[in-house]
Amino acid sequence: MADVSRELAHHLDARDPLAAVKDRFTLPDKVIYLDGNSLGALPAGVPDAVDDAVRRQWGGDLITSWNGNGWWTLPGRVGDRIGRLVGAAPGQVMCGDSTSVQLFQALVALARLRPNRHTLITDGGGFPTDQYLAESVARMLDLRLLRISPDALDTVIGDDTAVVAIGGVDYRTGELWDAPELTSLIHRHGALALWDLAHVAGVAPFDLDGIGADAAVGCSYKYLNGGPGAPAWIYLPTRHQNAADLPLTGWHGHATPFDLDDSFTPAVGIERARIGTPHVLSMLALEAALDVFDGVDMVDVRAKSLQLTQFAIDYVDAFLPDVEVVTPRQDARRGGQIALRHREAYAIVQALIARGVIGDFRAPDLVRLGFAPLYLGFADVWDAFEHLRDVIESGAYRDPAFATRRTVT
Ligand SMILES: *Cc1c(COP(=O)(O)O)cnc(C)c1O
After folding, report:
1. pTM for the complete prediction?
2. CB environment 55-73: b (16+ within 10 A), e (fewer)
3. What is the CA radius of gyration of the chain?
4. C-alpha of residue 99 to centroid of ligand 1, in Å
5. How far apart are CA 142 and CA 188, in angstroms?
6. Residue 408 confidence (pLDDT)
7. Is residue 1's pLDDT more than 90?
8. Residue of 38, 39, 130, 409 best suited for mutating to test ligand 1, as the one with most atoms within 8 Å of CB
């Protein structure tokens, strides 16, 4: 059995090369935040950036800000900074709208690149919005929709497959899929690969250019810490940009938006992935939030992420023998979160939140705990799991107050 103790936690914290990055965040006292995979914490520079955006840029400079304060170039600028974190060279990522909207854009654009194929494959355990958008796109373009675990992709992919859409990490179990291997399988069948990196960007390195992904999308409010409703992003590699027929032909994606033409001509390059007026205030918040990644190597982030999740698994093995670790134990297959199965998962999560340990519940029986390496230490994990053990052993979760289902779980 692996050694797991408070002393080990302090030892690991003392040797953590990312320990100082925590100071780049504003975190509440007495809270251990294990939900950075759902809503990242507040980077310390964001309030001033938002204040400046509202008072000086909007309030003072008004519409001249589109040129003078760089609002027009903001979506591409932020896109490039996100691109660096997911292995995309500049000029291939555009920031804007929601992940759901960008999924629609990417699914349709890729399907249109394979007009003689009629099957769309998606992960049957994937995030609901990914499946719902795939259903709608299949209906709209008259495609057959197949749902399968990425593990079993080779059993269904074939000559009729146009697009395969997969999330990089399973949002429930935390399983990290083998993206290079799956992308190469998809390409061997002449199909196109769309990756949803919502649970990857900012916690694990990804090599979009290197694996030859055909498109990717992701959100910015999880490990990218862009704040509630932060704009999402789309990756469209250079080789597909001129052929990509994106369905949402908003005027910002026009070749010459201020000619105000009556008909759409797409811009050259990633600019065609713009849609309408961006969410400038949210995007400026996100731009400031991304400063926390300055000088941070994703290799270090990944190394710490794996150590944090391993520490948590070791704790469960040592002290919580009745709790099942659903997340894969092999490093290569583990994303940034741990899912624990327990019949009373909902009440346990509520009891933890009442003690200031914030995680979340995923139906029907998972306690989902996210480990954001930029602001979480090993002693935090130790303390959180001591609470978890106490909540379970004492039966504290049986308090009726913890049984009531709230709207957002
Ligand atoms: C969080 C998440 C989303 C969120 O979609 P929104 O449109 O931003 O609400 C989509 N897909 C995956 C895989 C996610 O994890």
Report:
1. 0.97
2. eebbeeeeeebeeebebbe
3. 22
4. 5
5. 24
6. 84
7. no
8. 130
